[in-house]
Design a protein that fits this description.
Helix content is about 25%, strand content about 35%. By secondary structure, the protein is of the alpha+beta class. The protein folds into five domains: about 180 residues, 3-Layer(aba) Sandwich (Rossmann fold); about 80 residues, Translation factors (Elongation Factor Tu (Ef-tu), domain 3); about 70 residues, Elongation Factor G (Translational Gtpase), domain 3 (Alpha-Beta Plaits, 2-Layer Sandwich); about 110 residues, Alpha-Beta Plaits; about 110 residues, Alpha-Beta Plaits (2-Layer Sandwich), CATH 3.30.70. The relative contact order is 0.08. The structure holds guanosine-5'-triphosphate. Its EC number is 3.6.5.n1.
């Protein structure tokens, strides 16, 4: 136990965690030359393509220190985007130390701070590392000042490295061994293992990732999951090298996996404690946050016959991503589907793409919204995850919406335009602080509903990428919200309804209709697009009819070309949904995100 070090890497997005993690694997010869492939840990296709980490991963390395001792290092890689902070908090709970990576060209950013706080709350030893020092525009001295200010360490405790060239990487390994405490825990106590992740594997069933806090587990043991109160045999246990490596026993302080023949995802809860059936531990490991979805949207199969398949796919996905929540719902326009809860918009996009790639599910996602609290005149109070849950305005007393505290760190030249943006999103500034002469931290209170749409993109474009943003929820406040409905040829499309602040409803309705006009293709008849609040129509656009024979262009008889065109048209249709007599493309359901 004294030679084990469990640590994670935390950083703002793109500050170079994955690159550095790869370097550590290389330096410790965990990855052979042949297996070398950039970003070994980002093994999901989607992660490689987007160059971001979505899931946390764990991997074990062997390292011989300068003191000649052999150490086992367990690295848990964590994602940096604000939407995935839940993954970060789970990983952190399984570690004793954290490398805090700061890009020396960018300095401290919003998620550097929020992830750091998470690590400090969990009493992790922090090792600050200045990264990307190979870059000519790197600014090590100034960024060191920022780090000293932030965590109150000595300047010489800050390491400098480059994930690209490998410079400074050996020092990081030494620092991990020297500074990160070894795990504590009682090897003789009853087994207590923390479930920090799980994954569905089509051959093996569910693989549960664990960190042993106390006691030990042997292959074949009968174990109990405290939270679900179910028993299983530990058919296989082992450690996580590049592949899973079976072992006979896992001891206090170890990080590894257990395969126990669990087939259904609902039986494993991340954050749960595993113990022995006989001689169990008295209580579970606490300090684990329940996931709070922030954004809700309907997810519907394009083909309604796929509903059951979609349910099965979502159950599997949930196992791998505990932050996803879903419950059945039905829509007049879209049929049967699910109302899903996401951590944010990027999370929603990722889930949609994973459904498509990993499960071949073609889905339509509806306009995202946050959860509201409705108070009726009779005194009933209930939560709404869907605009269609909105009670009749006559019986409604008032609505409350969730508020967040937002922290924005930016260069001072962008402060003015960022303030204008926040104001347009109903933000109230509560603090403005200069971190250095040209870096400012702005603190705002804002409705969460305003930032789920396009706030992040706008923030980035206004600041040319030089603003970072983080937020946490601070409770609910009453607001004057109305439900805006969209009608297509006089028929309400529930999946397009949104709750919107009264003052913005007019312009929002108008822009929504304009956008839909762009997105809904012309069909054989006129399509009237109307925005309405209650019975009152507030905006209208028309998509003119067209009578176009797609094959008309191919005068003459090239039949293969004709067939190709028809195929192409058929494919295009797949992402369409029939609403009444109108065909509506998927894009249109998300029109609200693209409003100017
Ligand atoms: P997420 O996984 O999305 O949170 O990002 P990350 O922090 O893991 O960053 P990643 O390792 O993917 O690196 C982001 C970008 O910076 C990539 O284009 C890397 O090639 C580049 N990069 C990382 N480390 C260095 C470095 O030390 N020097 C230079 N020049 N570039 C680096």
């Amino acid at each position: 136990m004294k030679n084990i070090r469990n640590f994670c890497i935390i950083a703002h997005i793109d500050h170079g965690k994955s690159t550095l993690a790869d370097r550590l694997l290389q330096e410790t010869e965990t990855v052979g030359e042949r297996q070398r492939q950039a970003q070994v840990l980002d093994d999901m296709d989607l992660e490689r393509e987007r160059g971001i980490t979505i899931k946390s991963h764990a991997i074990q390395m062997d390292y011989t220190g300068k003191d000649g001792e052999k150490y086992v290092l367990n690295l848990i890689d964590t994602p940096g985007h604000v939407d995935f902070s839940y993954e970060v908090s789970r990983s952190i709970a399984a570690c004793e130390g954290a490398l805090l990576i700061v890009d020396s060209t960018q300095g401290i950013q919003a998620q550097t701070i929020s992830n750091l706080y998470l690590a400090i709350e969990n009493d992790l030893e922090i090792i600050p590392v200045l990264n990307k020092i190979d870059l000519p525009n790197s600014n090590p001295e100034e960024v060191k000042d920022q780090i000293v200010d932030l965590i109150g360490c000595d300047r010489d405790e800050i390491l400098a490295a480059s994930g690209k060239t490998g410079e400074g990487v050996p020092d990081i390994l030494e620092a991990i061994v020297d500074r990160v405490p070894c795990p504590v825990g009682d090897p003789k106590a009853p087994l207590q293992a923390l479930v920090f992740d799980s994954e569905f594997n089509s051959f093996r069933g569910i693989i549960t990732y664990i960190r042993i806090m106390n006691g030990e587990i042997k292959k074949g043991d009968l174990v109990k999951f405290l939270n679900t109160e179910k028993d299983y045999y530990a058919d296989e246990i082992g450690v996580l090298r590049l592949e899973r490596e079976p072992r006979k026993v896992l001891k206090t302080g170890d990080v590894g996996y257990i395969i126990s023949g669990i087939k259904t995802s609902t039986e494993v809860k991340v954050g749960d404690t595993i113990t022995h059936k006989e001689n169990p531990c008295i209580e579970g490991i606490d300090g684990f946050e329940e996931v709070k979805p922030m954004v809700f949207a309907g997810v519907y199969p394009i083909d309604s016959e796929d509903y059951e398949d979609l349910r099965a796919s979502m159950e599997k996905l949930k196992l791998n991503d505990a932050s996803l929540t879903f419950e059945p719902e039905s829509s007049l326009a879209l049929g049967f589907g699910f109302r899903c809860g996401f951590l944010g918009l990027l999370h929603m996009e990722i889930i949609q793409e994973r459904l498509d790639r990993e499960f071949g599910m073609n889905v339509i996602t509806t306009v995202p919204n946050v959860s509201y609290i409705a108070h009726t005149k009779k005194g009933d109070v209930f939560e709404m995850h869907n605009p269609s849950d909105m009670p009749d305005p006559n019986s409604l007393d008032f609505i409350e919406e969730p508020y967040i505290k937002a922290q924005i760190i930016t260069k001072s030249e962008f402060v003015g335009s960022l303030m204008t943006l926040c104001l347009s999103k109903r933000g109230m500034m509560t603090n403005q602080q200069y971190l250095t002469s040209d870096r400012v931290e702005l603190t705002y209170e804002m409705p969460l509903g305003e930032i789920v749409f396009d706030f992040y993109d706008k923030l980035k474009s206004i600041s040319k990428g030089y603003a970072s943003f983080d937020y946490f929820q601070i409770g609910f406040k009453a607001a004057k919200l109305v439900k805006l409905d969209i009608l297509l040829n006089g028929e309400g499309v529930d999946a397009l309804s949104t709750l919107i602040h009264f003052d913005n409803a007019q312009s929002f309705g108008r822009r929504m209709c304009e956008k839909l006009k762009e997105l809904i293709p012309r069909q054989q008849f006129d399509i009237a697009i109307q925005g309405a609040i209650g019975a009152k129509i507030i905006s209208r656009e028309t998509v003119k009819a067209v009578r176009k024979d797609v094959t008309a262009k191919c005068y003459g008889g090239d039949i293969t070309r004709k067939r190709k065109l028809l195929e192409k048209q058929k494919k295009g249709k797949k992402k369409m949904k029939q609403v009444g007599n109108v065909e509506v493309p998927q894009k249109a359901f998300l029109a609200v995100l693209k409003l100017d």
